[in-house]
Structures are given as C-alpha cells and as structure tokens.
Design goal:
Shape: globular
Radius of gyration: 11 Å
Largest sheet: 5 strands, antiparallel
Strand content: 35-45%
C-alpha cells in the first residue's frame, strides 16, 4: 500500500486527511508513546491491523516509521 512516503514530514492534519480519503483511521498515542498509528477499520469499528506508524519529531511534525 503506497499511501505515505518514507522520507516526507507530515503534519497531524496531513495524516488525518490522507486516512479519510483512503478509508483508514488514526489512533493517537502521543501522550504515552509520542506516535500516531494508522489502522484500517475491522467490521466498521476500530481495532483493525496497524498499517503505518508515525513518530513525532517536532511539534505537529511526524515522520513515517513503518
């Protein structure tokens, strides 16, 4: 799935917008782990497989980890 690019920096809004366009959702783990994961819905609900992880490198700037 080639939605995100490895060496690009994304804002949180960029990530959410791309997810919305592709039927994915974000899970905010900033408080505990300083990262945001992107998941697919499973049977219309959260809890699907984690597809992408972004770690925060600056305030509201994220980089794709995997």
């Amino acid at each position: 799935m080639g939605i995100f690019v490895k060496n690009k920096k994304y804002s949180f809004d960029d990530i959410v917008e791309i997810c919305d366009k592709n039927g994915l959702t974000t899970v905010d783990c900033l408080k505990d782990e300083n990262m945001v994961s992107v998941e697919e819905y499973e049977d219309g609900e959260l809890g699907g497989e984690c597809l992408f992880e972004f770690h925060q490198i600056k305030n509201d700037i994220f980089k794709l980890t995997w």
